[in-house]
C-alpha cells in the first residue's frame, strides 16, 4: 500500500530492477535492525549522493532508507563483495530533505558505541515515516464572521473561548485545549459558528525573537550569560556546565545562550528529562521569545510530530524542546544544545538502542561543531570529573535570585522519633506541617513510592503477592483496586480472599506508598486540601501543568508526590518539604546509590522557599550519620562529591574506569544459564579486562524472561567495544536467548 502511495506521488525512475547500462552502486542504510547498509544500483537516469532519502526494494516490499557513505577503511574505499548483476536498483529518490553529514556520522557513532545495528539507530532518526510523504492540507478553524444563533453548551463555550485566545487551529489541538472531544469542534463548524480554512501542512512557523530583552541579570548571572552566549553564538564545539542552586536563574542564563544562537541564525535543541516539565518551559520561553518552541515527545500527537520533524529538517523550526528522543531530529542548522537537569536518570534509554542522552548530546555537539550546555544544581560525577580535568568549562551561580535563602534542612532521626504503628509522619514533621498550614503556606511531602503499599501479604499464611512474570512484589494501587507490577505492568484485582489459604479479610498492606500517605495526611488534617502527584495521576504534560498551576494559585495546601514533583517546578508559596523516607534510594548495591539519593533529595529540598518566604526541609531517616544526610544538612555538596569521586577512583569504577553490563535473557532458565556460562568461559583474559559473573540479575525474572548478568570492568584506556564484539560474537545463543550489552550501565536491575 505504501508502495502505491509513493508511486503516485513521486515519479518513478525505472519500472524494472534490471538495467541495461552498467549502473553505479551505492550503499543504502535502512531503518531496520539489520547489520549495516545494503548495496543497491543507481539507475542511469538518477543521481544520488550520501544523505539522500531513497525508496528501495527489500524482499517483496519497498522501504525508505538513506544513501550512506562509501565503506572506507584507512581512507580507502572498500571493494564490493556482491556482483552487480545480483543487486537491485533504487526505485525513487525522494524529493525531500537530505540527511546531513554530521547526522549520519552521529548515527554511525552511536551504533558503534552502543554496539547496536546502525539501522536500529537510523530508525530513531526516522521515527515518523509519514514525514516522507507530502502532507494533506489541514483544516484550521477560526470564529465565523457572522455566526448564526446556536445553543451554547459548556463544552461549546470552552471551544470558543479557547479559539478567542489564539490563532486559527486544527480540530485536535482546539479540542485538547478546551478539554472536549473533537466532535464538539466539528459540530460547531457544521452549525457555521466557526469556519474551517484549508492550509498547507508545511506552513511557515512563527520565529522566536532573540531581540526581546530578558530580565536584568545580576552581576553573576550576567557573567555566566556572557560566557555562554559567547560560546553559543560563534559556533565550534564546546561543553559548558552551568552549575547553580535551584532558583539561581540557570534558565534565564541559558536563555541568553539560546538568544545568541538564534541571532546567529542557528537552530536550538533543549532537552528536558521529564515531559511533565515542558508545559512550564513553553510558557517561560514564550514570555522571553514571543512565541512557543516546537515540542517533541511521546505525548505530542503524531500528526504534529510529523510537522515538527519536517520543520526541523527544513529549518522552519528554530527551537525544539523535548525528551531524549529529540536528539535524533534532523536539524539542518543546529547551533546550540541545552541539557537541563543533566544529572537526571531519565536521560538513560534502557531498551532497544541503549544510550545516555546527555552523553550523546555532547557527541552530537562535537560532530556538528556546536556548543552544548549541561545544566544542573547537582551535576553528575561524570560531568564534575570532566570539569576537573579541564574538558568542560564550568559556570557557577552560587545564590538564589533576589537573595532568597536556601532552605534550612534538618534531620528527623526515626530511631528516636518513630511514628506510631502504620503511620509514617513523625511528631517533628507533623508539628512543622501544622505550623505551615496555620501560616497559610504550602507543604510538600515526598515519598518515592507509587501506589498504596509496596507489598501485600496474607496475615493468616504469610502468602505474598508476587508478579508471575518478574521477580518482584505486586504493589497495591488502592484507588484503582489493583495489585500491579511496576516492572511489566501485570495487574490483578485486589482481593479479600487469600489465593493460597482461603482466609478472608486477612490481607495486610506493608509499608507506605504515596496513596497511603495521603490517607494519613487526610485523617490528620481533614480540612486541608491534599493532592497527589505521581506518574499514575499525571502522565500528560497538561495534567502536570494543571496541578502546578493549582499549587501556584494556592488551591492546594499539601502536595504529596513521587520524584515527579522533585523536578524543576516553581512553587512560590511552598515553604515546607517533608521527606518521608530519605533512606529509600540507598538500599541496593547500586554504585551510584549515594550520588543519586543526594541529587534527588537536594532537588526535592529545592522546592521549598523559592521566593520571599524562607523554606525548611525535614528529612526522616534511620541513618542520620550517612554521608548523604550529612551533606544535605551541611550543604557541602563539593566535599560529598569529592569523597564519592575518591571512592570510585580507588575501585576503578566509572567515571574513572569503564563498565559494561551484559544481560543474557531467555524464556528458558537452563538455556539462559548455559549461554551466560559460555560467555564467562570464553571471556578475554587480559589484565585490564575484568569479567564478573554470571550472576542472576537482581530482577532474575523480568517480563517472563530469565536473566543472568555479567559485568565487565576495564580501565579508561581500553576500547571496551572492540574487546566485547568478537567475544560476544563467538558465543552462538539458541534463538530465544538474547544477549544485550549496556555500555556505561546505570540500572543494575
Ligand atoms: P533555576 O533554573 O536555576 O532554578 P530560574 O531561571 O528558574 O532558576 O529562576 C528562578 C526564578 O527567578 C524564576 O522565576 C526566574 O524568572 C526568576 N529570576 C531569575 N533571575 C532573574 C532576574 N535576573 N530577574 C528577574 N527574575 C529572575
Ligand atoms: Zn511483572
Give your account of this protein's structure:
By secondary structure, the protein is an alpha/beta fold. A seven-stranded parallel sheet has the order 12-13-11-14-17-10-18, with helices on both faces. A six-stranded parallel sheet has the order 19-29-28-20-27-26, sandwiched between helices. Helix 2 packs antiparallel against helix 11, helix 4 crosses helix 5 and helix 5 packs across helix 6. The chain is globular. The site of adenosine-5'-diphosphate has 15 residues, from helix 8. Adenosine-5'-diphosphate binds next to helix 8.
Put the structure in a nutshell.
This protein is an alpha/beta fold.
Key terms for this structure?
7-stranded parallel sheet; alpha/beta; 749 residues; binds zinc ion; binds adenosine-5'-diphosphate; 20 helices; 31% helix
Helix and strand arrangement:
Layout: H1 2-9, E1 24-29, E2 38-42, E3 52-58, E4 61-68, E5 72-73, E6 76-77, E7 92-98, H2 101-114, H3 118-125, E8 138-143, H4 154-164, H5 171-178, H6 182-191, E9 194-199, H7 219-234, E10 238-244, H8 250-263, E11 267-271, H9 278-289, E12 294-296, H10 302-314, E13 319-322, E14 334-340, E15 348-349, E16 355-356, H11 357-368, E17 371-376, H12 381-388, E18 393-397, E19 408-413, H13 427-438, E20 442-446, E21 455-458, E22 475-477, E23 482-484, E24 491-493, E25 507-510, H14 514-524, E26 530-533, H15 541-552, E27 558-561, E28 574-579, H16 593-605, E29 616-621, H17 627-634, H18 637-651, E30 657-666, H19 669-681, E31 689-702, E32 705-715, H20 720-730, E33 738-743
The site of zinc ion (ZN) has 8 residues, from loops.
Amino acid at each position: 500500500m505504501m508502495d502505491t502511495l509513493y508511486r503516485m506521488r513521486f515519479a518513478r525512475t525505472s519500472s524494472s530492477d534490471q538495467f541495461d547500462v552498467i549502473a553505479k552502486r551505492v550503499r543504502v542504510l535502512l531503518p531496520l535492525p539489520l547489520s549495516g547498509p545494503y548495496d543497491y544500483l543507481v539507475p542511469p537516469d538518477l543521481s544520488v549522493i550520501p544523505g539522500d532519502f531513497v525508496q528501495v526494494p527489500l524482499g517483496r516490499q519497498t522501504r525508505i532508507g538513506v544513501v550512506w557513505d562509501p565503506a572506507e577503511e584507512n581512507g580507502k574505499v572498500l571493494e564490493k563483495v556482491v556482483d552487480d548483476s545480483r543487486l537491485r536498483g533504487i526505485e525513487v529518490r525522494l524529493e525531500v530533505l537530505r540527511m546531513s553529514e554530521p547526522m549520519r556520522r552521529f548515527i554511525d557513532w552511536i551504533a558503534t558505541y552502543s554496539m547496536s545495528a546502525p539501522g536500529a539507530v537510523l530508525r530513531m532518526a526516522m521515527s515518523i515515516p509519514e514525514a516522507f510523504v507530502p502532507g494533506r492540507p489541514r483544516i484550521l478553524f477560526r470564529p465565523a464572521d457572522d455566526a448564526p444563533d446556536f445553543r451554547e453548551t459548556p463544552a461549546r463555550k470552552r471551544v470558543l473561548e479557547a479559539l478567542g485566545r489564539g490563532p486559527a487551529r486544527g480540530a485536535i489541538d482546539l479540542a485538547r485545549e478546551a478539554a472536549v472531544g473533537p466532535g464538539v469542534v466539528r459540530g460547531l463548524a457544521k452549525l457555521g459558528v466557526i469556519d474551517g480554512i484549508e492550509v498547507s501542512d508545511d506552513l511557515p512557523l512563527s520565529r522566536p525573537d532573540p531581540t526581546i530583552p530578558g530580565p536584568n541579570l545580576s552581576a553573576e548571572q550576567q557573567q555566566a550569560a556572557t560566557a555562554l552566549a559567547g560560546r553559543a553564538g560563534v559556533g565550534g564545539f564546546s561543553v559548558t556546565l552551568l552549575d547553580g542552586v535551584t532558583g539561581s536563574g540557570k534558565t534565564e542564563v541559558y536563555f541568553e545562550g539560546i538568544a545568541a544562537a538564534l541571532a546567529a541564525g542557528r537552530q536550538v535543541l533543549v532537552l528536558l528529562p521529564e515531559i511533565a516539565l515542558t508545559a512550564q518551559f513553553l510558557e517561560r520561553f514564550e514570555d522571553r521569545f514571543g512565541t512557543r518552541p516546537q515540542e517533541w515527545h511521546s505525548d505530542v500527537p503524531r500528526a504534529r510530530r510529523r510537522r515538527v520533524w519536517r520543520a526541523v529538517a527544513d529549518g522552519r523550526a528554530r527551537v525544539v524542546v523535548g525528551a531524549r528522543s529529540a536528539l535524533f531530529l534532523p536539524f539542518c542548522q543546529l547551533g546550540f544544545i541545552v541539557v537541563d537537569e543533566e544529572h537526571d536518570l531519565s536521560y538513560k534509554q534502557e531498551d532497544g538502542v541503549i544510550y545516555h542522552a546527555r552523553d550523546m548530546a555532547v557527541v552530537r555537539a562535537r560532530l556538528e561543531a556546536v556548543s552544548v550546555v549541561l545544566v544542573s544544581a547537582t551535576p553528575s560525577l561524570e560531568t564534575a570529573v570532566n570539569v576537573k580535568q579541564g574538558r568542560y568549562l564550568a559556570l557557577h551561580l552560587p545564590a538564589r535570585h533576589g537573595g532568597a535563602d536556601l532552605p534550612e534542612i534538618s534531620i528527623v532521626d526515626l530511631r528516636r522519633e518513630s511514628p506510631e504503628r502504620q503511620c509514617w509522619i513523625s511528631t517533628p514533621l507533623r508539628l512543622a506541617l501544622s505550623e505551615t498550614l496555620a501560616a497559610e503556606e504550602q507543604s510538600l511531602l515526598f515519598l518515592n513510592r507509587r501506589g498504596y503499599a509496596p507489598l501485600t501479604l496474607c496475615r493468616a499464611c504469610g502468602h505474598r503477592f508476587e508478579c508471575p512474570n518478574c521477580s518482584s512484589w505486586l504493589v497495591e494501587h488502592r484507588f484503582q483496586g489493583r495489585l500491579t507490577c511496576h516492572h511489566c505492568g501485570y495487574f490483578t484485582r485486589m482481593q479479600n480472599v487469600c489465593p493460597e489459604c482461603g482466609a478472608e479479610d486477612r490481607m495486610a498492606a506493608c509499608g507506605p506508598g504515596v496513596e497511603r500517605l495521603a490517607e494519613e495526611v487526610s485523617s490528620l488534617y481533614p480540612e486541608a486540601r491534599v493532592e497527589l502527584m505521581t506518574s499514575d495521576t499525571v502522565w500528560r504534560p497538561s495534567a502536570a501543568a494543571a496541578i502546578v498551576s493549582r499549587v501556584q494559585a494556592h488551591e492546594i495546601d499539601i502536595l504529596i508526590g513521587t520524584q515527579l514533583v522533585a523536578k524543576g517546578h516553581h512553587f512560590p508559596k511552598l515553604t515546607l518539604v517533608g521527606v518521608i523516607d530519605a533512606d529509600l534510594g540507598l538500599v541496593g548495591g547500586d554504585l551510584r546509590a549515594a550520588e543519586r539519593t543526594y541529587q534527588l533529595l537536594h532537588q526535592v529540598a529545592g522546592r521549598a522557599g523559592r521566593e520571599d518566604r524562607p523554606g525548611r526541609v525535614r528529612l526522616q531517616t534511620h541513618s542520620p550519620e550517612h554521608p548523604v544526610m550529612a551533606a544535605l544538612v551541611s550543604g557541602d555538596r563539593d566535599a560529598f562529591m569529592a569523597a564519592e569521586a575518591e571512592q570510585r577512583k580507588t575501585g576503578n569504577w566509572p567515571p574513572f574506569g569503564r563498565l559494561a553490563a551484559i544481560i543474557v535473557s531467555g524464556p528458558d532458565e537452563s538455556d539462559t544459564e548455559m549461554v551466560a556460562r559460555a560467555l564467562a568461559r570464553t571471556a578475554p583474559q587480559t589484565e585490564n579486562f575484568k569479567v564478573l559473573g554470571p550472576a542472576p540479575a537482581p530482577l532474575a525474572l523480568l517480563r517472563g524472561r530469565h536473566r543472568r548478568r555479567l559485568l565487565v570492568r576495564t580501565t579508561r584506556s581500553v576500547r571496551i567495544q572492540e574487546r566485547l564484539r568478537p567475544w560476544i560474537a563467538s558465543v552462538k545463543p539458541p534463538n530465544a536467548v538474547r544477549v544485550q550489552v549496556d555500555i556505561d550501565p546505570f540500572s543494575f536491575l
